[in-house]
Amino acid sequence: MPTVQFTCSDCTQTIEVNEEMRETILDTGCPVCTTPASEDDFEDE
Ligand SMILES: [Zn+2]
């Protein structure tokens, strides 16, 4: 499964996520600080 890199715009935590986790983060925000995430916070490797 392809992964993308999530970098939180607030706490700057970088996490490698799969598509399912990406959807979850877009839905619920950063797993670390719960700041809402946008498409721009994800980067294909
Ligand atoms: Zn964060």
From TrEMBL:
Protein name: Zinc ribbon domain-containing protein
One protein family per Pfam: DUF7560
Taxonomic source organism: Halorubrum saccharovorum DSM 1137
Lineage: Archaea, Methanobacteriati, Methanobacteriota, Stenosarchaea group, Halobacteria
